[in-house]
Write a structure and sequence with these properties.
Number of domains: 4
Number of helices: 20
CATH architecture of the largest domain: Orthogonal Bundle
Subcellular location: Bacterial flagellum basal body; Cell membrane
Shape: globular
Membrane topology: Peripheral membrane protein
Family: Belongs to the FliG family.
Protein name: Flagellar motor switch protein FliG
InterPro entries: Flg_Motor_Flig, Flg_Motor_Flig_C, FliG_a-hlx, FliG_M, FliG_N
């Protein structure tokens, strides 16, 4: 287990660089960051009271080296795409493609929701049709979307999840209309990072973030409406106990990223099999210390246990996305 993971070190390096730039330049950089990045960097800067000169010099040297490797081929990529397509295809055909390619250029209304707390977003969307809510939530990060859904009634939450699971992308014109509706209520926001939106995987990832009690209720509701759809969602879900599916090498990679206190809390709600797997993938001394810590730790809230388990699952998903580990599944798809 590591005292500091790569994400923490990267955040500290970024914080040091921003503090070195001064207030005006740092503010300009912040304008191009997402809400989670701003919060993470703000918290990191607030914690860094004293920084050794050697560390500052290391960060600045690293930034200088990276900056030398970067080069912008064109000043405005959007305008370049438009010009090239119009010359190659003519105005009519090009304009049809341009709308699709650059559809994420103006989604300020929807993007603004990412800067709001779950309660405010839920209040704004509560009276909208489930299809509209689904189309908006798939633009948010899964943890924010799940927090919003928890604040809906059980029936409304489940109706929205069914629509997320059956959502097959969003047409540019529909996205534009949706954004215009949100823009009438909200103001500001930056560009939206586009991705494949909606579908079974999106619903599964959102449900994963909700906790066991809500998860069971949602899946039961979906199963009554469409048993095949519920099964597809379950096939794409990844639970804490699925850590058992990791091979020992992958499991050790995960443990290196997890803080000791977080691991203790997460294991309070784990099966004996999973606990034993953790012990097997640690040194005998570390395993013995962990056993003692688990035994001496008194009762903890279920919400605390689930929160730490979610953090471990986030680490697993990141390592899977980076190709560092592979998670076998029981279905036809052998990878997460």
């Amino acid at each position: 287990m590591a005292g500091k993971n790569n994400d923490d070190e990267g955040a500290e390096n970024a914080a040091i660089l921003l503090m070195s730039l001064g207030e005006e330049e740092a503010a300009s950089v912040f304008k191009h960051l997402g809400p989670k990045e701003v919060q993470k960097l703000g918290e990191t800067i607030a914690k860094m009271k004293i920084i050794p000169r050697e560390r500052v010099e290391q960060v600045l040297d690293k930034f200088t080296e990276l900056a030398k490797e970067q080069h912008s081929l064109v000043a405005d990529t959007d305008e370049y795409v438009k010009a090239v397509l119009r010359k190659a295809l003519g105005d009519d055909k090009a304009n049809m493609l341009i709308d699709r390619i650059l559809q994420g250029s103006d989604v300020s209304g929807i993007e603004s929701l990412k800067w709001m707390d779950a309660g405010s977003v839920a209040e704004l969307l509560r009276n909208e049709h489930p299809q509209i809510i689904a189309a908006i939530l798939v633009h948010l990060d899964q943890d924010q979307a799940s927090s919003v859904l928890k604040l809906f009634t059980e029936r409304q939450r489940n109706e929205v999840l069914i629509r997320i699971a059956t959502l097959d992308g969003i047409q540019p014109t529909a996205l534009k209309d949706l954004n215009e509706v949100m823009s009438k209520i909200l103001a500001g926001g930056d560009r939206l990072k586009k991705a494949s939106l909606g579908g079974v995987k999106a619903a599964a990832e959102i449900i994963n973030m909700m906790g066991s009690s809500v998860e069971t209720s949602a899946l039961d509701y979906i199963r009554e409406a469409d048993n095949d759809l519920a099964q597809k969602i379950m096939d794409n879900m990844f639970t804490f106990e699925d850590l058992n599916k990791l091979d020992d090498k992958g499991f050790q990679s995960v443990l290196k990223e997890v803080q000791s206190d977080s691991l203790i809390l997460a294991l309070k709600g784990a099966t004996s099999d999973l606990r034993e797997k953790v012990f097997r993938n640690m040194s005998s001394r570390a395993a013995e210390t962990l056993r003692e810590d688990l035994e001496s730790r008194g009762p903890v809230r279920v919400s605390e246990v689930e929160a730490e388990q979610k953090e471990m699952l986030k680490i697993v998903r990141r390592l899977v996305d980076e190709g560092q580990i592979v998670l076998a599944s029981g279905g036809a798809d052998d990878f997460l």
